[in-house]
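Example protein as discussed:

>
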Amino acid sequence: MTILALDTSNKTLSVAVELTNGTMIEQTIENTLQHSVLLVPTIEAVFEEAGITAKDLTKVIVAEGPGSYTGLRIGVTIAKTLAKSLGIPLVGVSSLDVFLPNLASKVEVGKIVVPFFDARRRNIFAVGYQKTEEGFKKVIPEQHISWDDFLKVLPEFAMGVTFVGQLQSITKDAIVEKGASEAKWLEGPDAIPHATSLIELGRNKEAVDADVFVPMYLKLAEAEENWQAEHPLEKGSVYVERV
């Protein structure tokens, strides 16, 4: 199999290919807001390095969210277009799960790990997993939530929780003051999502229907929030259904 993986769900843009011999080639660009400009050239650069073309692909894996509304639309649109035009399977993987393959040796059994992305205004996209002998068990579902509220939903046994992500709209000291005094932090390289992890997680995952697949937004786009504010009687109706 020749697999392409795309992650445009946050400020990091990552593209990877796994060749039939198991070789993985990846290009990752950190702290960029130019996904619409950089994604296609990055895909082309990875193809060139791998010595393949789009016609060689047998599967496409994409970070399905949560994350940036615009970023998700860009990556998912390209992934769906490739899957449909080439007639190959499309697989979606949670954007927050990409950290898990690198955490197995860094989190003790029984402890909680919280991968997160900053969502501005002291909010985050986050999920909670408990390390077990078999791997990671989800104990807190993916959600868009304020730091204050998220710390309240952490179970009592999560005093030694490990956070994995890059803080932007709040400081570590502010989180500690909210009650996470025993928290551990994995930052730097451990907090950078890589498309190669998407391949590990999605290689054997069941494909989705590209015609109906939509990202896991969790949060409305600002335009949709404004529209609903201006149309209170239609609140709850769908403003954008799919990309």
